[in-house]
Specification:
By secondary structure, the chain is mostly beta strands. The protein has 1 helix and 27 strands. The strands form 7 sheets. A 4-stranded antiparallel β-sheet has the order 3-2-1-27, with no helix packed on it. Strands 7-8-9-10 form a 4-stranded antiparallel β-sheet. A 4-stranded antiparallel β-sheet has the order 11-12-13-14, with no helix packed on it. This is Exo-alpha-sialidase.
């Protein structure tokens, strides 16, 4: 096994953890210790891995920094990396997602708040607003969720650079087949239980928490909703509920196994009453049959009462492992697909995002 780099973005700084050959992780000193890091990407497309970090400067606003030496030094573009054009009269609140394109060298997508998609063609140094989505006729009726009007998921079709799926909370899933010039809502079959009876299957307005897919089967998408877990076998044309075997279908993260396209992981929570782990037990649930059945995985995880949730981007499955971080600053990993877990780091600030890569 190659070395694994784990990037952990928290409410107060970025932590990089490294493991060689499947051994214990060593956690580096914190970077950006006074600011939040809600988004991270590890771009392994070039000869040298590049780390991208979406940070929050507080009074000075959000920005994106890059490191080409595994976090030893960081650069910010000479111009502001991400900003709304003046004509939009919008102000960038947060960079929620950084996603390198799987098929276009140097292209990086950024999902932002309020509900916007940006595209970089220089490896993340500068970004330009995707105006097709910003000007969508639905936009004036999008309503923010409790976390804001955040574009938190960007999925690029691995075989077609012009085809993308994005998710906005609480607007729903949108997709494009022409590189972002035009977009259509893709929410058919997703129930919005918080809406009145008779109006719970709208064209848009669903509170989607996360969407994922496997590159070998991009037509199949999986989705964690505010109330429901879903699968689409036709790239979002329609959705089917797969959450029946879970103790709760409310949660935030959902990730697909890096090698097995029918295997996915979720972290169920109590619903709107308290948003803590179901039964106050720290358990990841895995399905090996695309949501047909589920199994709880908790060997090595805390056995006492647990009250900390896992946020939408605080779980990942890559680099030969599965990793997640909690809102009370604990990070866990598994080398055996979740059958057993080990601690990676503890007593960190509130974990916002976790990303892993082989380096």
């Amino acid at each position: 096994m190659r070395g694994v780099l784990l990037a952990i973005g928290t409410r107060k700084g970025l932590f990089l953890a490294r493991s060689s050959g499947g051994g214990p992780f060593e956690v580096d000193p914190v970077r950006f210790s006074t600011v939040g890091v809600p988004s991270v990407a590890i771009d392994t497309r070039g000869p040298v891995p590049r780390i991208l970090a979406g940070i929050e400067y507080g009074h000075f606003g959000p920005s994106v920094l890059r490191s080409d030496d595994l976090g030893e030094s960081w650069q910010e573009g000479s111009a502001v990396p991400i900003a709304f054009p003046e004509a939009t009269a919008a102000t960038l609140t947060r960079v929620w997602q950084l996603q390198p394109s799987p098929s276009e060298p140097e292209v990086v997508w950024a999902g932002a708040e309020p509900g916007a998609l940006f595209r970089s063609e220089d490896g993340g140094a500068t970004f330009k607003l995707v105006e097709g989505l910003w000007n969508h006729p639905h936009r004036s009726r999008w309503q923010p969720g409790l976390g804001g009007l955040c574009l938190h998921t960007v999925l690029s079709h691995p075989g077609d650079a012009k085809t993308l799926v994005v998710a906005v909370s609480a607007a729903g899933v949108y997709r494009t087949g022409d590189g972002g010039v035009s977009w259509e809502a893709a929410n058919r079959g997703i129930r919005a239980p918080f809406l009145p009876e008779g109006a719970q299957y709208p064209e848009f307005g669903q509170c989607v928490h996360k969407v994922d897919m496997h590159p070998s089967r991009p037509e199949r998408l999986f989705l964690q909703h505010h109330g429901g877990v879903y699968r689409s076998d036709d790239f979002g044309d329609s959705w089917t509920s797969i959450g029946g075997g879970l103790p709760s279908d409310f949660g935030f993260p959902l990730v697909v196994h890096p090698d097995r396209p029918d295997t996915l992981y979720v972290f169920p929570l109590h619903g709107d009453d308290d948003r803590t782990p179901v039964g106050h037990r720290c358990r990841v649930f895995r399905s090996d049959d695309a949501g047909g059945s589920w199994r709880a995985l908790d060997r090595g995880l805390p056995t006492g009462p647990v009250h900390a949730a896992v946020l939408r981007d605080a779980m990942c499955a890559s680099a030969g492992g599965v990793f997640f971080g909690t809102r009370d600053g604990e990070v866990y990993g598994s080398w055996d697909d979740g059958e057993s877990w080990f601690p990676v780091a503890g007593h960190l600030p509130d974990v916002l995002t976790v990303r892993a890569a082989s380096v």
